[in-house]
Amino acid sequence: MNSVIVRAREYLNHASETEKGILRFILENPERASRMGTHALAKAVFASPSTIARLCRKMGFENYKDYQRALVAEVAVKSNLVIDQDFEIRPEDSLDTMIGKTVLRSTMSLEDTRNLIETDVVERCVQLLVKAESISFFGVGASLVVGRDAFLKFIRLKKHCQVCDDFDAQLVLAKKLQKNDAAIIISYSGRTQNVVECARALKASGVPTIAITCFVESPLSKMCDYNLFVSATEYSSTAGKLTSRLSQLLVIDIIYLAYIQATYAASQNALKATYIEKDNEGEGKHGGAEPERAGHRDPE
């Protein structure tokens, strides 16, 4: 489902002042807004119908009617939309309250990401990965952690994969990949300079690219062939970004499982062949420590 509420919330911080007024009205009055035509909404928010039409397109809807149909369906399915829930962690909060807010915030971020995921885009991404000779993962900071998680998943399927911790190595890797490879670039903002530089190198080489990034248009999303959007609405800036990595990991899991479905027989055989029995957690079959990145091929 193309969620109006999720898309409005994701785009809010990047909107113009006029657009913010429209989005806040929709977020605060979803049921009322779902019944309003474009002229009625324009009058209520002191904006022009053309501004509202452009905003609908920016949020990924073809036109106002497309937006309205989505909002009507969303209101019908979800009568208790959580819009302005207080998730901010305060000094006076008890530990139990803090835990509850954290769990609810994470749960909402995952649900919002589900509403941003387009099934047909996921299907095309999986087809690309199945055909690719290798998959390389790019990211920095917390996004690199997600890339490493993806790497460890896909090598179990005996798919040739690469991930580099060092930015210079990532850039070299980006420049040496070819059209028959594939790259997954992970960046919530889509504006991190190092990641954008790698994406630019990949595009120059004609390498097919998949971005796991935020819903708002960014340099990364404009360069990549496919965009898998994630939600990371934090509701509070005091603790920094906490949910973007959860949303990114969810998308990786979806791609990984969809890949297994698309190559079921081969993947099941590969998973059995790469299974490692563990006598104790953190130890290999013969009691030795497992290598951190078994199967990694460093860039030449």
Give the helices and strands, then pairings.
Layout: H1 4-11, H2 17-28, H3 30-34, H4 38-45, H5 49-58, H6 64-77, H7 95-116, H8 119-131, E1 135-138, H9 142-154, E2 161-163, H10 167-176, E3 182-186, H11 193-204, E4 209-214, H12 219-223, E5 226-230, H13 244-262, H14 264-273
Parallel strand pairs: 1-2, 1-3, 3-4, 4-5
Low-confidence residue ranges: 80-84, 284-300
Radius of gyration: 21 Å
Oligomer: single chain
Mean pLDDT: 86
Strand order of the largest sheet: 2-1-3-4-5
Summed up, the helix count is 14
**Structural class computed from helices and strand pairing:** alpha/beta
For the secondary structure, the number of strands is 5
- Spell out the helices and strands N to C: HHHHHHHHEHEHEHEHEHH
What features would you describe in this structure?
The chain has 14 helices and 5 strands. It is an alpha/beta fold and 300 residues long. It is globular, with a radius of gyration of 21 Å. Residues 80-84 and 284-300 have low confidence and may be disordered. The protein has a 5-stranded parallel beta sheet, sandwiched between helices. The N and C termini lie far apart (43 Å).
Any descriptors?
300 residues, alpha/beta, five-stranded parallel sheet, 14 helices, 5 strands, 8% strand, globular, disordered C terminus
Short description:
This protein is of the alpha/beta class.
